[in-house]
Design a protein that fits this description.
The protein is an all-alpha fold. It has 8 helices and no strands. It has helices at residues 7-10, 35-46, 51-58, 62-68, 70-94, 97-110, 129-139, 147-150. The longest helix has 25 residues, at 70-94. It is flat and about 100 Å long.
């Protein structure tokens, strides 16, 4: 008798036929999302490309593009501008005069930073039924001729 967990049993299927590894997977290959693709989608969206055009360039379906790159499609221009400003700031810190000029031009063009918005006042919780009835009971005698008698 052989053990069911031996190496010989692992190489044969339940009919005694040898088991071969699957050479290639069936179906459509899954889309591989990576950092380069994310930055590329940001750049293409910032350049004004449509979703159909970007998906054709990447070789995927539009639904797959929206599923994997929703953030990049919505905020692509802002992300690219932020990356460009970050690189310019690093060059400015090193002493690059062109970068210094660009940063100063940007600050002059955009103006002063936005004024911070004051936080909203916290909403009062609405009173429950019991609390509302108790308040009404205490103030029911006000403005009536019974007010002095009920106190």
């Amino acid at each position: 008798m052989t053990d069911d967990f031996s190496a010989e049993a692992a190489e044969l299927d339940m009919f005694g036929q040898p088991v071969f590894p699957i050479k290639e997977r069936r179906g459509r290959p899954s889309f591989a999302k990576n950092k380069e693709n994310q930055e590329l989608v940001c750049l293409l969206r910032a350049a004004g490309w449509t979703q159909a055009r970007i998906s054709r360039y990447l070789g995927c379906d539009e639904k797959t593009l929206r599923k994997n790159f929703s953030r990049e499609l919505e905020d692509g221009a802002d992300l690219i501008e932020g990356m460009a400003l970050e690189v310019t700031l690093k060059k400015m810190k090193v002493g690059n005069s062109v970068a210094i000029g660009r940063i100063l031009d940007l600050v002059d063009k955009k103006g002063s930073p936005a004024i911070p918005v004051a936080p909203k006042a916290a909403k009062e919780e609405p009173l429950g039924k019991k609390e509302t009835l108790q308040q009404e009971a205490h103030t029911a005698h006000e403005g009536t001729k019974w007010g002095s008698l009920l106190q």
